[in-house]
Amino acid sequence: EAGVTQFPSHSVIEKGQTVTLRCDPISGHDNLYWYRRVMGKEIKFLLHFVKESKQDESGMPNNRFLAERTGGTYSTLKVQPAELEDSGVYFCASSQTRTGEQFFGPGTRLTVL
Amino acid sequence: TQLLEQSPQFLSIQEGENLTVYCNSSSVFSSLQWYRQEPGEGPVLLVTVVTGGEVKKLKRLTFQFGDARKDSSLHITAAQPGDTGLYLCAGRPYNFNKFYFGSGTKLNVKP
Fold first, then answer.
1. Alpha-carbon separation of residue A17 from A26, A68, A86, B49, B72 (angstroms)
2. DSSP per residue over A79-104, as a string?
3. Which of B42, B97, B101 sits opposite A56 (nearest CB)?
4. A-B interface: how many C-beta pairs under 8 angstroms?
5. What are A104's strand-pairing partners?
6. Pick from A13, A27, A36, B48: CA 20 to 30 A from residue B24's CA?
7. What string of DSSP letters covers B39-83?
């Protein structure tokens, strides 16, 4: 069974540009989470989808971040326009509601110059 | 303000030694998880503890959840180089379906 995949693995962009990160969860997992780790800090929750609905987006930093999960399958996280402080590693995780165990993807390392 | 404090931040030991990593908070959690992360990969779940005072063992790893559900520890017996990695704790507060992570303990086990 394939695990959680994320694309791209690395992205280097300039301040003011737009970047879209993609997450493909494990098939059949209704729950999808986005997390972020900025340098020197802990992994922080961004938001949680249940199928295509946003269950909790309390961790989204500001309105420059937009997450979608069309059809309840893969999810995208768009940052527009990117700022320097957006640099970090963005993780996606998915889980079944029954078990709650989160499986993490390898992360996307975003560098904003 | 960080909800979960992990200590130590860094630990470098010789193969065969024992070690304990701590995860502390002033908040109460419905459950607490421990993860291990290797470079270039996402965190991998090791264990979930849900009952105050619970002890779980995973080979040479022993996990304990505090009686008050505010803290946890991870003890590794006879550490091996393969145990090297970043260990993370994550707590789930009551009535929240999300986890708060500690900043991690970077363990290096030298052969």
1. 30, 19, 12, 42, 42
2. ESS--GGG-EEEEEEEE-TTT---EE
3. B97
4. 45
5. A93
6. A36
7. TTS--EEEEEE-STT-EEEETTEEEEE-TTSSEEEEEESS--GGG
